[in-house]
Amino acid sequence: MLYQRFIPEGWNESENKYSVQDLKSALDKNTTLQGKIEKIDNKFNAYINLGNNIKGIIPSSELGNIMKNNPYVQFKVSSINDDVCYLSRKAVKNESLKWAINDLSEGDVVDGIVRNIKPYGAFVEIGGGTSGLLYINDISVSRMKTPEEKIKIGQKIKVKIKDIDKENNKFYLSYKEMLGSWKENIKDLTEGSILKGIVRETAKNKDGIFIELKPNLVGMCEYKDNLKYGQEVQVKIKKIIPDKKKIKLTIVCC
């Protein structure tokens, strides 16, 4: 996809200043704008800094859920009365959802911002308030106990559209493809070389230990007692098996 019609709120961290004419033009053309929340009152109306002494208000009914880590919101202009401009964030969300359902396809790569993290994965906004689910297994080929080991709330990332459930308006994403393919990650590694790795999982049957060599590349070494998850070790590459996408390692120092 060459053009991403909607970008995540706050992808461009700029405090835009608008004139009355700018806002009237946005109203006429149904343009999506972005602003920064100055405050939210006790009725959950949001006040937006529009600049030029123009007060922007998003009524609570037009606001939706606000992420604590992101003060930026996108909106449409609903009406202009003297020095007060009423805005709608809900209108952007509705339009962005239609865009995502109708225009995005499996395999498309889009810009996203991590909005929330759960034990099973993360929710990533892909534009205009529309988010998709990034399961923990789609973050990296490396094992991890929590998504926070690889991504953080507020982080800007590129994600691949893995699946679209049009019936339920749900999007499923993948991040690990953005970290390079097996072939790309292996190209600067050679048999016999020594490098650092991170212990990611010790096999229960003691067949071996998975070692992360790069964010999206793992190898396996022989089992060794007393190694802990997350521990840094030095390993030697014994064998690279391209047709099976496997790397055999031996521990040099731990």
Structural write-up:
The structure is a single chain. The protein has helices spanning 20-29, 90-103, 182-186; strands at residues 33-40, 46-49, 55-58, 72-81, 84-88, 109-118, 121-127, 130-135, 156-165, 170-174, 194-202, 209-214, 217-221, 232-241, 246-253. It is mainly β. It has three domains: 20-93, Beta Barrel (OB fold (Dihydrolipoamide Acetyltransferase, E2P)); 104-179, OB fold (Dihydrolipoamide Acetyltransferase, E2P), CATH 2.40.50; 182-253, OB fold (Dihydrolipoamide Acetyltransferase, E2P), CATH 2.40.50. The strands form three sheets. It has a five-stranded mixed beta barrel. It has a five-stranded mixed barrel with strand order 6-7-8-10-9. It has a five-stranded mixed beta barrel with strand order 11-12-13-15-14. A hairpin with a 5-residue loop joins strand 2 and strand 3. The radius of gyration is 24 Å and the shape is elongated.
Explain the layout of strands and helices.
Blueprint: H1 20-29, E1 33-40, E2 46-49, E3 55-58, E4 72-81, E5 84-88, H2 90-103, E6 109-118, E7 121-127, E8 130-135, E9 156-165, E10 170-174, H3 182-186, E11 194-202, E12 209-214, E13 217-221, E14 232-241, E15 246-253
Parallel strand pairs: 3-5, 8-10, 13-15
Antiparallel strand pairs: 1-2, 1-4, 2-3, 4-5, 6-7, 6-9, 7-8, 9-10, 11-12, 11-14, 12-13, 14-15
Give a short synopsis of this structure.
The chain is mainly beta and 254 residues long. It has helices spanning 20-29, 90-103, 182-186; strands at 33-40, 46-49, 55-58, 72-81, 84-88, 109-118, 121-127, 130-135, 156-165, 170-174, 194-202, 209-214, 217-221, 232-241, 246-253. A five-stranded mixed β-barrel has the order 1-2-3-5-4.
